[in-house]
Specification:
19 strands; 9-stranded mixed sheet; two-stranded antiparallel sheet; 2 domains; alpha/beta; globular; 13 helices
Length: 490
C-alpha cells in the first residue's frame, strides 16, 4: 500500500509542462519511427530487381504513357486558341491596365490576330483559321487556357516546364515518370526524346539530375542546333560487327560480377552502376530499337495521314509517327520537339517580329502530323491510355513588341494555352480562362506545378509521394506546391 502511495505521489509531482518536457524525446522517437517507416516503404515501392521494372500505380491510373509535343519558343495562345474579340476592337490602342514589371522586351499597343477565329467540332472549341486539320479532332481535345507562373525568358521557362524549377538543376518530368513507373519494355528506354535541341536548358531538359541515370531521356538524334532532321535521327551503336551477341553478353556479365565483388565508396559505386546499366540497356536495345525506328513497313495511307508525302510536313510527321511506334512498344514518356527543324528559316515559335509569317509556317508544319497522330492512336486503341500533351514554355503578349518593323509579340508567362488528348481527360472540354485581353489567367489558374501534378495524377502517381532523397532532403517534381486539376478527367 505504501509502495502504491509513493508511485501515486511521484506521478502527481509532475506538472503538464514538466511531463511534456521530459517526454518530448519520446514523442520525437515515435514520430521519427513513423517517418522512417514511411520512407522505407516509399523506397521499397520504387526498388525492384531491375530499376526499370514496371511498378504499381499509387492511385487509379488513366494513362500508361505520355507523348509530349513541345513547341519550343512560345506559341501565341491569342492567335491560335484563345479567342479575344477585344483585341480586334481595340487594335493599336494601349492596354487599359499596367503590365507586369519584368518583361523580356519593350511592348507597344494591343495587336489583333492576323487571322480570324471560328468554332469547331460539336464542342465548339475556338480555333484560329490557321488550323486546317486539327478541327477534325477538336472533340478529342481538352484545352487548358489558364496555364501560368513560368519564367519570362526562354531558358528559365523551358527548365520550369520540363523540370519544375527555373534555376536549380532538377530531374525532368520524363525522368520522374520513368522513376515512378518503370518501363513496360525492358529492351527500350523508359524515356525517349526525339530530335531535341541544345537551346534553353539543353540536355538538362531531358536529364535525370540526381535521380539514377537510367531514368534520363535517351535522344533519338544527337541534340544540337539546329536539331537533327528526323530522317537522319539514329540511336548510335545499334550494331556490333566485331563481337557476337553472346560475346557481348558474356562481357557484360563479367563486368557486372567484377563490379559487385569490388565495393568502393558510394559515389563512385553509383557512377559505375549507372555506366553498367547504360551498357546493358544499349545491348538490349540492339534487339528492338532498329525495328521500331524503321518506318519502311508503314503503309502509304499511314504515311499520308502524318503528312509524310509533303516536304513541309514530312519532318514533323516522321517524328510523330516514331512517337506512336514507341508508344506501341511501351515507352513511358516520349517527347517530340518542334524547333529549328526545317530549312524554311524557321525561328521556333519565337516571333518577336514577322509573327504572321512565322506562325503560318509553324502551324503548316505541325497541323497535319499532330492530327494524324491523334487519329492513328485512336484507330489503334492507344489514345485511351496515352496522354498527348501539346504546348510551349509560355504564350505571347496580346500587345505588339515595340520597335518591330514586321509586327510580333513578346514572351508571355501570365496566362497561356496548352491542350491534352486521350489518357482519360475530357474531350471537347475547356478548362480555365484568361481575362478579356488574354493577359492574366483568372479562372481555374493552372500553374506549372499544377500541370505537373495533373500529369502525374493521370498516370496514377501521387505527386506528393513521388519523392527522392538528395542532399539531406526529399525532392519531388512539384517541389512543395501543385494540385491536380481533377475536373478535366473523364
Amino acid at each position: 500500500m505504501k509502495h502504491t502511495e509513493n508511485i501515486a505521489s511521484s506521478i502527481q509531482s509532475y506538472s503538464r509542462r514538466a511531463m511534456l518536457e521530459r517526454m518530448c524525446l519520446g514523442f520525437g522517437g515515435v514520430a521519427l519511427h513513423g517517418m522512417m517507416h514511411r520512407r522505407t516503404n516509399a523506397a521499397n515501392e520504387l526498388t525492384a530487381v531491375s530499376p526499370m521494372a514496371p511498378r504499381k500505380a499509387q492511385i487509379r491510373p488513366r494513362a500508361k504513357r505520355v507523348i509530349f509535343l513541345f513547341m519550343h519558343g512560345g506559341p501565341s495562345h491569342v492567335d491560335l486558341f484563345d479567342y479575344k474579340p477585344r483585341l480586334y476592337k481595340e487594335h493599336d490602342k494601349p492596354l487599359p491596365f499596367k503590365e507586369r514589371e519584368v518583361q523580356f522586351a519593350n511592348r507597344a499597343n494591343i495587336m489583333k490576330p492576323p487571322w480570324g477565329f471560328r468554332r469547331v467540332g460539336a464542342s465548339g472549341h475556338w480555333m484560329s483559321e490557321l488550323w486546317e486539320h486539327l478541327p477534325g479532332v477538336a472533340d478529342d481535345l481538352c484545352v487548358v487556357q489558364s496555364v501560368c507562373e513560368t519564367n519570362v525568358a526562354h531558358g528559365g521557362a523551358c527548365m520550369k516546364i520540363h523540370c519544375g524549377d527555373e534555376a536549380f538543376l532538377r530531374p525532368s518530368m520524363g525522368a520522374w515518370v520513368s522513376y515512378g513507373l518503370g518501363t513496360e519494355n525492358n529492351n527500350l528506354p523508359g524515356f525517349i526524346t526525339i530530335c531535341p535541341t541544345t537551346l534553353h536548358g539543353g540536355v538538362n531538359n531531358f536529364g535525370s539530375a540526381f535521380l539514377p541515370s537510367i531514368h534520363q531521356g535517351v535522344p533519338l538524334g544527337a541534340p544540337g542546333y539546329p536539331n537533327t532532321l528526323a530522317k537522319d535521327a539514329r540511336f548510335n551503336y545499334m550494331t556490333n560487327d566485331s563481337q557476337s551477341p553472346r560475346q557481348q553478353k558474356l562481357q557484360l556479365e563479367l563486368l557486372r560480377k567484377l563490379h559487385e565483388q569490388n565495393p568502393t565508396n558510394s559515389a563512385i559505386n553509383e557512377a559505375l552502376e549507372a555506366r553498367i546499366q547504360s551498357f546493358e540497356l544499349a545491348f538490349r536495345m540492339q534487339t528492338e530499337a532498329p525495328e521500331v525506328t524503321d518506318l519502311s513497313g508503314e503503309s502509304e495511307i499511314t504515311r499520308k495521314l502524318y503528312g509524310m508525302d509533303d516536304e513541309k510536313t514530312e519532318n514533323f510527321g516522321q517524328m510523330c509517327l516514331l512517337a506512336r511506334r514507341f508508344a506501341e512498344k511501351g515507352v513511358r514518356f516520349i517527347q517530340v520537339s518542334h524547333a529549328h527543324s526545317l530549312p524554311f528559316n524557321n525561328e521556333q515559335w519565337d516571333q518577336h517580329s514577322h509573327l504572321e509569317k512565322g506562325h503560318s509556317i509553324n502551324v503548316r508544319q505541325i497541323d497535319k502530323p499532330i492530327t494524324g497522330l491523334i487519329r492513328d492512336l485512336k484507330r489503334l486503341g492507344l489514345l485511351e491510355d496515352t496522354l498527348v500533351l501539346w504546348g510551349g514554355e509560355f504564350g505571347r503578349t496580346p500587345t505588339a513588341q515595340a520597335g518591330s518593323g514586321e509586327r510580333g509579340r513578346d514572351h508571355h508567362p501570365d496566362g497561356f494555352t496548352v491542350w491534352m488528348a486521350g489518357g482519360g481527360v475530357k474531350g471537347g472540354f475547356r478548362y480555365g480562362a484568361t481575362d478579356e485581353y488574354g493577359y492574366h489567367a483568372i479562372e481555374d489558374r493552372m500553374t506549372i506545378h499544377d500541370l505537373h501534378a495533373t500529369l502525374l495524377h493521370i498516370l496514377g502517381l501521387d505527386h506528393t509521394r513521388l519523392t527522392f532523397e538528395h542532399a539531406g532532403r526529399d525532392y519531388r517534381l512539384t517541389d512543395v506546391y501543385g494540385d491536380p486539376a481533377t475536373r478535366i478527367l473523364a
